[in-house]
Amino acid sequence: MAPRYTQDSIERTREAVDMVELVSTRTELRRVGSRWVGLCPFHDERTPSFSVDAERKLYNCFGCGVGGDAITFVRELEALDFPDAVEALAERYHVELKREREDPEEEERRRRRERLLALLERAANFYATYLHESSEARRAREYLAERGLSAEVLRAFRVGYSPKAWDRLLVGAQRDGFKPEELLGAGLVQRSRSGGLLDRFRGRIMFPLADARGRVLGFGARAMRDEQGAKYINTSESDIYHKGRQLFGIDRARSAAAKAGRIVVVEGYTDVLALHQAGIEETVAIMGTALTQDQLGELSRAAGREGTVFLAFDADRSGQEAMLRAARIAEDRDLELRVVRMPAGKDPAELVAAEGVEAVVDRLASALSMLEFAVGRALEDEDLETPVGRDRALGRVRELIAAAPERSARRDHLVRLVADRLDVPVDYVIATVGRPAAGAESPVVPGPEQRATSPPAVARLDAEGVFLALCAAAGKAGESYLSRVSDSHLSSGMLRRARDHLIGHPGDPLADLPGDDHELATLLTALAVQADSLEAPGEGRLHTDFLHLDKRRIERELRHARADGDFARQGELAAALQQVRRELDTAMGQDS
Q1: What CATH number did the domain enclosing 64 receive?
Q2: Coil, helix or strand at residue 110
Q3: Which of 104, 316, 489, 491 has an alpha carbon 20 to 30 Å from 389's alpha carbon atom?
Q4: Angle formed at CA 108 by CA 104 and CA 110, multiple of 5 degrees
Q5: Do both 583 and 473 map to the same domain?
């Protein structure tokens, strides 16, 4: 559960920030009148359009439209949530944060967690020092050098080595005041068969696994000898460490990812180190596991609202299956995935070593959409030399092509791709996509009398539609918020007409469904179904969701103002965006 800090603590943290000093860690600033200006750290530019108001502690970029206070700066540049951003700033500027209504049990859990984090930090420093200074770790240093990894990148990621002796870390940590149960809780020691304690990691290269703020939560450990058993072992699952949430290198990659608007995902530790060393610093690793919802959430935060996630997994079947699984679990997220085609038998670290960073850059530039990748995979899995194989391939790709929007460049590209591979006319592929799958009934278009009496199909709702459904489920409070939803809050005329219908039929979205407007009736039915599935939301939920809706409205208008070159309007909208972000920070910070 995220901590809940008092509003006074949050405001004291904002006041303590030296905005010029904070921003100067990311871009060089120079004073111009009462403001400081420089190149925007959020996007590439040659002419400075980024300014800082030191007195009001605000920043704004007229080039890309970003703006806010210190908390917003850290959240967006470092891809942190609100409480973590507050904590990071409070730690930097020595502000004591006070929590609201923390019960004794929660306080005890927090103190225990802080002790375990301190212990893990100590262990990471111990292992890193041992790698670089001990004669025992010479073979590990040679192995890492053979992989093309410099001492600089190893130190940046705090790569280490665990001694072969069974109790080196155990004895040192106890000498520093840590208890056996804390060492067990941190996953650094384990029970022997006789019941005693011994170091869990011995004679292995150690990769610290940190969260987005750089706090070490566990370790991945690579064996150096065949007789050590598993090649890689990780810290055991605990209250601190959850493998399915970890992304190796996220603390080092998040700033570069926020600026680049993308994040590159690889499979292994050394792949991350090699790509960072080569300048592709927006790289993280999933450490050979299947990509999870938690990891996708972290990737989405790091890449930003309109960012892209590039999957650079091995070219073997397991790597390709992992990318297809990732696409399936990403379907419900507004997240673009692209597939980087890797050469057979080479991982990213080996590709950089053999062909240089340009080879990776070129492959990123030519990455495939998930639809292209899935279509290519379906074609590769069939024997295209036989009529039966071509028919099977066409049957597999027809639904994939149909998933692309009609009359779009994406669908046209897929159609041409399939036609070329199957050596059939483009028109034949188009006709096949338009036919129902084998065994399916032909679609029946209902007449006007059927549409007036039969229930319409349920449409899929986007974020704006979900807010309308939320209002429909909220009774009087929802009616109040519906009246605040202007035309500019809604991106389509159909949603605006649905809003008007809900305002005119409070408590009964399905009353007087229009018999002559099938599309509107379908949308209203979807809204009613969604509203029925929701518990009546409180004022806090409605307020927060409305702020999100208002934020999207302002961002749309800001994009139009930038496209029109209307600098006065950009300034007004930037101020409005800053205000709604502050309101959101307050609302979400107190609801965390």
Answers
A1: 3.90.580.10
A2: helix
A3: 316
A4: 115
A5: yes
Residue 267 shares a structural domain with residue 330: yes
What is the DSSP-derived secondary structure letter of residue 403?
T
The phi and psi torsions of 560 (rounded to 5 degrees) equal: -65, -40
Closest by alpha carbon to 290, among 344, 245, 250? 245
Give, for 362, the enclosing helix (H) or strand (E).
Answer: helix 357-365
User: Please, which residues have CB within 8 angstroms of residue 165's CB and are 6 or more apart in sequence?
Assistant: 199, 202
Q: What is the pLDDT of residue 592?
A: 42
On whether both 488 and 587 belong to a single domain, the answer is: yes
Write out the H or E segment, with its range, that includes residue 582: helix 567-591
Cβ neighbors of 178 (< 8 A, separation 6 or more) are 115, 119, 122
- pLDDT at residue 165 in the model: 95
Q: Is residue 483 part of a domain?
A: yes
Let me know: does 162 contact 221? Beta carbons within 8 Å. Answer: yes
Q: How far is CA 132 from CA 152, 158, 475, in A?
A: 11, 10, 65
Q: What confidence score (pLDDT) does residue 475 get?
A: 87
- Asked if residues 338 and 330 have their Cβ atoms less than 8 Å apart, the reply is no
User: Does residue 99 lie within any of the structural domains?
Assistant: no
Q: Which residues contact 71 (CB under 8 A, 6 or more apart)?
A: 10, 13, 14, 82, 85, 86, 89, 585
**Which residues constitute the domain of residue 573?**
457-591
For residue range 582-591, what is the model confidence (pLDDT) as tens digits? 888 787 655 4
C-alpha span between 512 and 505 (Å, rounded):
8
Number of Cβ atoms within 10 Å of the Cβ of 248: 25
pLDDT in the model for residue 447: 33
507 to 425, 482, 569: CA distances (angstroms): 54, 12, 39
- Collapsing DSSP states into helix, strand and coil, what is residue 201? coil
Q: Residues 310, 336: contact at Cβ < 8 Å?
A: no
The CB density around residue 203, as the number of other CB atoms within 10 Å, is 20
Residues 254 and 351 in one domain: yes
| Cα separation, 163 vs 165, whole angstroms | 5
Among 337, 366, 395, where does a domain finish?
A: 366
Gap between the Cα atoms of 473 and 164, Å rounded: 62
Q: Is 326:337 a contact under the CB 8 Å cutoff?
A: yes
What residue ranges of the chain have pLDDT lower than 70?
1-3, 102, 288-289, 305, 316-317, 329-334, 434-462, 563, 588-592
What phi and psi, each to the nearest 5 degrees, are found at residue 546? -65, -40
Place of tokens 């929007």: 405
Residue 284 sits in the same domain as residue 346: yes
Which pLDDT does position 541 carry in this prediction? 86
pLDDT in tens, 211-240: 988 999 999 999 999 889 899 999 999 889
Q: Please report, as a single letter, which amino acid is at residue 556.
A: R
Domain end position, chosen among 59, 92, 125: 92
Same domain, 121 and 192: yes
Number of domains the chain is built from: 5
Pairing of strands 232-234, 204-210: unpaired
